[in-house]
Amino acid sequence: MSTRNPNIAIYFHVHLVSDSTGETLVAMMKASTAQFRSATALEHLHALVRSEAQMTQTLETIAAKPGVVLYTLVNPERRAALQAFCRERNIPAISILDPTLSMLGRYLGAAMTDEVGAQRNLDDAYYSRIEALDYAMAHDDGQAVSGLADADIVLLGVSRTSKTPTCIYLANRGYKAGNIPLVPGAPLPVILDGMTKPFIVGLVASPDRIVQIRQQRLIGLKQDTQTDYIDQDRVRDEMKQARRMFTRKGYQVIDVTRKSIEETAAQIINLYNKSRPIEERRRGLRL
After folding, report:
1. Do 172 and 23 contact (CB within 8 A), yes or no?
2. pLDDT tens digit string along 134-161?
3. Architecture of 124-283 per CATH?
């Protein structure tokens, strides 16, 4: 039975070995290690490992800083080399996609491709994401409001409700998203009322959280913190007015107080999909 003090932090090395960009490994590692609050992963990303020389260098690094190894390698020789190396040194190693690929292979009755980075081919979906990113930047923070008629999603919210990063995340999923800030005393653009395509979402948060974020922003900008921008009563009134307006116009509302950007975006996408006719959902299916 372990007697380790659970309050003592653990630092350990995690080697992420991929013959592609390694983004899948990074996401998996972060999602997994987040479940162990007392542990801190020291990340070593070995991306684009596509030659024997690169694999040799990777193995040398793992030997110098042993820990655990997560990998996605298509090439059978390099997979075998990494597996043998880790097995000889009792280093835990797992190919994170193998269980999923095996299950899909059995279900589909088909062999998988041996193409490296197959999910990142320069196909129509890839160019759609690039177009969506360009769109999000061009329609950020109330810019080019008339162009929002072509948006999939429009976000509204007071300052510091994470409108911009959420739009960027949505764009990376292929959704054309823009945002408009709610400024005290300034009405929303009238053109919004006539738009039928965009799915409009209002973002809200607790006044305390908004004040905290705004204070940190002003400190980072080395600006005066004695301003209405962070006045608790003024911020509370901003949020109250925003909620009333969202309700009056029938917009969907999401509270982002305790949500990550990813969680907020996922909820927006769920609401967006539910609002679309089934036929349109099929035509505009995004991966």
Report:
1. no
2. 999 999 999 999 999 999 999 999 999 9
3. 3-Layer(aba) Sandwich (3.40)
| Identical fold, 10-119 and 124-283 | yes
Please name the residues in contact with 268: beta carbons below 8 A apart, sequence gap of 6 or more.
Answer: 153, 155, 166, 170, 201, 254
Non-local (6+) Cβ contacts of 126 within 8 A are: 120
> Residue 197 in contact with residue 191, Cβ under 8 Å?
no
**What is the value of pTM for the model shown?**
0.72
> What residues contact 203, with CB distance under 8 A and at least 6 apart?
155, 156, 157, 161, 162, 163, 166, 253, 254, 256, 264
Which option is the CATH number for 10-119: 3.90.1170.40, 3.40.50.2300, 3.90.550.10, 3.40.50.300? 3.40.50.2300
Q: Find out whether 132 and 175 touch, Cβ atoms under 8 Å.
A: yes
Tell me which H or E stretch contains 202: strand 199-204
Q: Quick one: which of 169, 200, 180 has its CA closest to 275?
A: 200
Q: What is the pLDDT of residues 98-119, one digit of tens each?
A: 888 888 888 888 776 666 555 5
User: Which one is predicted more confidently, 35 or 117?
Assistant: 35
Q: Residue 20 class from Cβ within 10 Å (0-12 exposed, 13-18 middle, 19+ buried)?
A: buried
So where are the chain's domains? Answer: 10-119, 124-283
Say how far apart CA 79 and CA 18 lie, in whole Å: 10
Segment (H or E) for 84: helix 76-88
Residues 6+ apart with CB under 8 A from 68: 12, 13, 14, 15, 91, 92, 93
Instruction: Provide the token pair at 270.
Output: 């769920």
Helix (H) or strand (E) holding 98: helix 98-108
